Amino acid sequence: MKFCDFIKIEAIQAELQATDKDGVIRELVDGLIATGQIKSEEKESIVQSIMKREELGSTGIGRGIAVPHTKHASVDRLIGAVGVSTKGVDFQSLDGDVVQLFFLLISPPDRPADHLRALENISRRLRDDTFCRFLKQSKTADDINQLLEEADNNQFVS
Amino acid sequence: MPNPTLVRAVVINNPQGMHMRPAHLFAELAKKYVSQIEIIKNGSRIDGKSVLSILTLCAMNGESISLEATGPDAEEAVNALAELVNNGFTFDQGDSNTQKVE
Question: What's the ipTM?
Answer without folding.
Answer: 0.90
